[in-house]
Write a sequence for this structure.
C-alpha cells in the first residue's frame, strides 16, 4: 500500500516497574541522552505506572523534555464508584498525551473484553488524548491460522463506533501475545504482514484516508538489536517496547534505530 510519511512513535511501556524515585532517575537520564536530532523526526512516549505520572509530568514540563507522557490503561468513566480505577479525565489533567488501551495483559490477565477496550478508546478520545489500541493473536490462535480473524474481531469492536477522522489520529499497536516478554519477537516480515493487514482492515472499516494516516506500531520483544529491522518495514510506524524501555540508554538506542530512512 502506498504510504504518506507517518511520523514514527516509539513508546516505552514500563508495566509495573520503576517506583516514582526510579522514574525520576530514568526520565532524567532519558532527557540527558535524547538529542534534538533523535526526536526531530520521531515521537517518543513513556508509560510509567500511575503513581509515577505526576513526577514524570513535572520533570518533562520543567525541563521541556521531548517525551510524551503516557498511561498504561484507564477506566472509561470520568468519575464514580470504581474502586481502584483511574479516569481518563484525571489523566488528561496531568498532561497525559497517550493512553494504552487493551494491552494484552489487560485483556488476558484482567479479563478486559473487546467491548471494554472499545469504551476505553472512546473515553481517551473524548479527553483529547491519543489511544494506543493494542491488538494481537495468542500463540494458539496463530497456530490455528486465526491471526487475521482475531485482528479483524478486535479492530471491528474497537473502531466501528468511531468517525474516520478519529481513527486517523489513533495509534494501533500490533502485539502478538506470544512475542510479549518472551524474548521471541515476530520476524520483521511477519510484523509487516500483520501491520499491513491492520491497515487494510482500517481501510475496509473506516476508509482510505484513515488507513493512510493511522500509525501502526509493532510490539513484542523489541530490543536495540532488532528495532531497525522492524522500522525498515513500510507499514511499521513505530514500536511499543516493554522490558527494553526500562533502561534509558537502551531505550534511546531503540529511538535512534527508529529514524526514518535510516
Ligand atoms: P516486551 O513488552 O517488549 O517486554 O515484550 C511489550 C509490551 O508488552 O508492550
Amino acid at each position: 500500500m502506498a504510504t504518506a510519511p507517518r511520523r514514527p512513535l516509539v513508546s516505552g511501556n514500563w508495566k509495573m516497574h520503576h517506583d516514582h524515585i526510579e522514574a525520576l532517575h530514568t526520565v532524567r537520564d532519558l532527557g540527558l541522552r535524547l538529542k534534538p536530532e533523535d526526536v526531530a523526526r520521531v515521537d517518543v512516549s513513556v508509560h510509567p505506572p500511575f503513581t509515577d505520572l505526576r513526577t514524570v509530568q513535572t520533570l518533562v514540563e520543567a525541563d521541556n523534555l521531548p517525551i510524551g507522557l503516557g498511561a498504561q490503561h484507564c477506566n472509561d468513566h470520568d468519575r464514580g464508584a470504581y474502586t481502584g480505577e483511574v479516569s481518563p479525565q484525571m489523566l488528561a489533567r496531568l498532561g497525559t498525551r497517550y493512553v494504552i488501551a487493551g494491552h494484552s495483559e489487560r485483556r488476558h490477565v484482567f479479563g478486559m473484553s473487546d467491548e471494554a477496550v472499545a469504551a476505553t478508546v472512546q473515553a481517551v478520545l473524548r479527553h483529547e488524548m491519543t489511544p494506543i489500541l493494542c491488538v494481537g493473536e495468542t500463540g494458539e490462535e496463530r497456530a490455528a491460522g486465526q491471526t487475521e480473524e482475531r485482528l479483524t474481531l478486535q479492530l471491528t469492536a474497537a473502531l466501528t463506533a468511531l468517525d474516520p477522522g478519529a481513527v486517523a489520529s489513533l495509534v494501533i499497536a500490533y502485539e502478538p501475545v506470544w512475542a510479549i516478554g518472551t524474548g521471541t519477537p515476530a520476524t520483521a516480515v511477519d510484523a509487516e504482514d500483520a501491520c499491513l493487514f491492520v491497515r487494510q482492515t482500517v481501510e475496509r472499516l473506516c476508509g482510505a484516508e484513515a488507513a493512510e494516516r493511522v500509525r501502526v506500531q509493532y510490539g513484542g520483544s523489541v530490543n536495540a538489536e532488532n528495532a531497525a529491522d522492524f522500522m525498515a518495514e513500510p507499514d511499521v510506524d513505530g514500536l511499543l517496547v516493554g522490558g527494553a524501555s526500562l533502561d534509558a540508554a537502551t531505550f534511546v538506542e531503540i529511538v535512534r534505530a527508529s529514524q526514518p530512512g535510516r
Remarks:
- The pocket of 2-phosphoglycolic acid is lined by residues 13, 175, 180-181, 219-222, 240-244 (CB under 6 Å).
- The mean pLDDT is 97.
- The radius of gyration is 17 Å.
